[in-house]
Amino acid sequence: MDILISIIKFIVGAYFTLFIVYIFNLDMKLIKSLQPIADNYYDNIKRDRKL
User: Fold this and answer.
1) Rounded CA gap, 34 and 28, in Å?
2) What are the residue boundaries of the structural domains of the chain, listed by start?
3) Which one, of 5, 28, 24, 29, lies nearest residue 16 by Cα?
4) pTM here?
5) Furthest-apart CA pair in the chain: how many Å?
6) What is the residue-wise DSSP string for the chain?
7) Tens of pLDDT along 1-51?
């Protein structure tokens, strides 16, 4: 019974966390903050062709 309660607590906690991420759109805000780092990395890659 103790394991069942732990599993239910984990599922409720995971659901609540995912709900907060969805409501506040936190995943896209995180990606937006990481975009300049990714742009800097990909802009500095050596390429063998010029466009």
Assistant:
1) 10
2) 2-43
3) 24
4) 0.65
5) 65
6) -HHHHHHHHHHHHHHHHHHHHHHHTHHHHHHHHHHHHHHHHHHTS--SS--
7) 999 999 999 999 999 999 999 999 999 999 999 999 999 999 999 888 877
